[in-house]
Design brief:
mainly alpha; two-stranded antiparallel ribbon
Length: about 100
C-alpha cells in the first residue's frame, strides 16, 4: 500500500501530503533538538520580547532553522530540506490554504 490514511478528514494522502506530514514532524524534532541544546527557537520582536500568535510564542519556521549556524547541516542536507519545504508550499497552494 503506497497511500496513507490521515487521522482526520477521511480519504487517502498522496505523496505530497505525506511529505508535508514528514516535514511537520521534522520541524517538531528540530525544535526539540534546539531546546535540548539550550537554544530557544522563538521569534523575537525588536525589543527582545517573544512574538506571540494567539497568545503562544511563534517558533522559528523550518526554513529559518536550517539556515542557523547551530544546525550544523551540510549543503546536501539543507538542499533536501528546502526541497521538502517547496513540496509543502506547492501542496498548500494546490489545496488553497
Amino acid at each position: 500500500m503506497d497511500k496513507f490514511e490521515p487521522v482526520s478528514g477521511g480519504g487517502e494522502m498522496d505523496h505530497a501530503e505525506e511529505a508535508v506530514g514528514q516535514l511537520v514532524i521534522a520541524g517538531l524534532q528540530w525544535h526539540a533538538r534546539l531546546r535540548g541544546e539550550g537554544i530557544t527557537p522563538v521569534l523575537k520582536n525588536a525589543d527582545g520580547t517573544a512574538v506571540l500568535v494567539d497568545g503562544q510564542e511563534k517558533l522559528w519556521e523550518l526554513g529559518y532553522c536550517i539556515e542557523r549556524p547551530e544546525a550544523g547541516l551540510s549543503a546536501g542536507e539543507k538542499a533536501n530540506l528546502k526541497y521538502l519545504i517547496a513540496i509543502r508550499n506547492a501542496s498548500s497552494n494546490r489545496r488553497g490554504s
